[in-house]
Amino acid sequence: MLSASSRRFNITTRGRSISRFNITMCKKHKGKQDKPKPWDEDPNIDHWKIEKFDPSRNESGMREVSSFSTLFPQYLEKYMQEAWPMVKNALKEYRVSCELNLVEGSMMVSTSRKTKDPYIIMKATDLIKILSRSIPAPQAIKILNDEMQCDVIKIGNLMRSKERFVKRRERLLGPNLSTLKAIEILTGCYILVQVLLLI
């Protein structure tokens, strides 16, 4: 609960008062919710630990079916056909169905009534998104783990000059991809610089 106390101020120039205004200052009252909780100071509790999802928390499964789809480029068509059984098996563990449509060039993931983890559809969406950007399937499947995150950083529009952009991208890759490997080792991340779409 907040209590307000107001003060009045006058601004004067050369002896004349030009404006008057009130400033309201708020002071917070301490209530029951502000008392320290026993788990706040417990040294045995790791507040940063990400707990693995337990299927027993959601016995009944999902009430609604959610689905997401994304398109992939034509040059990935053959690779998608080869890698799709691996992707399908990985998603089957989480009871998420997936569909590869080679006519439209699209991938779709959807939950079912048996899906337990409510957040797995977001992870599956990330999976098809990074697969469509040429990430190898064994690396892409790792995103389904709770500890893993992914991000797509678009660097194509950072430079006006195409020649300067190509030079900077080459500097990021380094000779024989040495700079990129060094960044991967330092950050502990898998990094892919997509070259085909940027030329």
UniProtKB/TrEMBL annotation:
It is found in: Nucleus, Nucleolus. GO terms for biological process: rRNA processing. GO terms for cellular component: small-subunit processome. Residues 148-194 form the KRR1 small subunit processome component second KH domain. Keywords: Nucleus, Ribonucleoprotein, Ribosome biogenesis, RNA-binding, rRNA processing. GO terms for molecular function: RNA binding. This is KRR-R motif-containing protein 1. It comes from Zingiber officinale.
